[in-house]
Structure prediction request, 156 residues.
Amino acid sequence: MAFVRTIESALTDELPHVESPVAGRPVYQSLRQRGLAFEPVHTGGGYFALSLLVPGGEILVTDDDGQIARPAEFHSAWLACFYPEPTSPFDADEEDVVDVYVGDGSLSLADDCAACADSVALWLATRQASISTGPRIVSLDTETAAPASSSLTLAS
Prediction:
C-alpha cells in the first residue's frame, strides 16, 4: 500500500530527499514566518487552500487554479483574496471579494511566495490600522480652502 500524506503533513513535516514538496509548502512557511497562522482547508473536489480567519471574514491563499497541493514544479502564481462574511445566508455573489495579492506568473516560486506573504501581511496591518483608528488623514489643505473651513482628504 502506498503512503498517502495528509495536506498538513505535506506542509509541515520533514520530507524524504526523494519526495518533491507541494507548491503550498513554501508559501505556508513564508506566511508563518511573518506571524500569520494560516491553516490548510479543503475547498471541495480534492482542492486545498490556506485560510486565515480575520474579523469580518477570511483570507484564502491558493494558486491561480485553486490548489496548493500540486507539485511545486507546476506552480505558476499565487492568489490571496479576502472574503467578507456574507450579509445574509442568501448573499452568494462575490462582488465584495478583495484581491489582496494576484501573482502574474512572472516570478519564481520563492519570489512569488515572498511577494504573496508580504502583500498579505501589509494588507492585514493596513486593515487593522484603519479598523483601530478609523480613516487616516492623508492631507489637510488649509491654504486653498475657504477661510471658514478646511479641506480634508481621507485614505480609503
